[in-house]
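Purpose: get a first structural picture of the assembly so the mutagenesis plan has something to point at.
Setup: two entries, given in the order below. No constraints added.
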Amino acid sequence: MAQTKVQAPFVEGGGGSSFKNLLINGDMQIWQRATAATASTSGYSTVDRWQVNESSDGAITSEQSALSTADKATTGCRNALLIKCTTTDSSIASGQFSYLAQGMEGQFLSHLGWGTTSAKTLTLSFWVKAYVAGTYTVGFKKYDNTAYFLPIEYTISSSNTWEKKTIEVSPTSGSTSLITGANGAFDQDNGQALLLTFGLAWGSTYHGTSGTWSSGTHFSTSNQTNFLSSTSNTFYLTGVQLEVGDLASDLEQVPFDVQLQRCMRYLEMIVDPRSAGTGTLSTGDTNEGLGNFVNYNAQYAYGHFDFKVMKRSESPNLESADGSNYFKYFNENTSDLVDVVQNVATEGHSGIQVYLDCGSSAITQGNGGFVRVNNAAATLLVEDEF
Amino acid sequence: MLENATKIKKLKDPITGEVKTIQIFFPGKRLFVPMNEKNRWYAEIKKQVDAGTLTVEDAD
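Result (structure tokens, whole complex):
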């Protein structure tokens, strides 16, 4: 009887066929915080998992760009992260910077073998469109043991045109042996172990040699275009993938629900009554409920939230909207209005205790009730970013 | 990251009286930060307090 040998599927890049992308939300699907233009100075302001850091004398905003049908066909993505320059800085001082970034946990990178002579090469690929053509840079910072840095230049050839870039990230780039030495290893924990940056402007403090690892804080080179040169400047980024191997494979298509859960390890909206679409999970329901609370005494009512997704660390933060009468506590056949939901203790990776200060002698010990938002801006979230 | 904060103040647990949280007041929102040095917000606050460039108000 004739037999047909079944060949193993061809896997480009060697990163495996599932979760080969070391980055989360590289296709800019998830926007829990906001989608509209938001002034960005430091940290996370709109798209999930992507930091926007700005320290120059200029200013930038970040927002979601819903791509046209033609652009979707080009990039394979439905959204891009759009950065606009809103205030110029024509002369970036030495210690100033403006960049996008995503950090990665060490325990997600153990298969890279960095810190050994078997350290694997990575390949970065992404779609980019910018108003100003020219030289730009990506940068890598390897944390833990000794910190090492790698700036790599790339060229945007044409103004306002989507271009796909592919960049090899070798552990021995520049004929160096820093990453293959013992101090090139990552800690195998939930801390930030590797940072990828997309430069918009970098002062001379951060300039190094393109393609060479070093221990200097070199995220960029002196050839980096100054994105802050004009308020006409825009920078679009999407389809970002960092994978093991020296070939760029097609962008991994992660289902929306899976991508959302991956993002929720770092940010989880508990309630979001803002206009539907303002963030990925916004409902537009100004009666949205938080949950049940019990009166500890005549002033304080306590509640508890189990996280839908375990958080990265044992010490996540609670962020509550804070405004006049933002939350309404229904109890004892009446209601009490409070401004903010407070927190004094987390329960590690899995849940959080919260309480309401209803005012002295406002409630009855031992009774209970439930809480709704009372304002369209009354968001409540847990965040556990780097 | 603290440049937009209007006030930074410790918070006492109404049940135990323990102080294990710092509140960071921003316009329109408040962030409750565990006093854990692995937390990036607490680490930044501690760095600035140690440098003498930031004061954290005591809890009520």
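The two ends of chain A are 59 Å apart (CA to CA).
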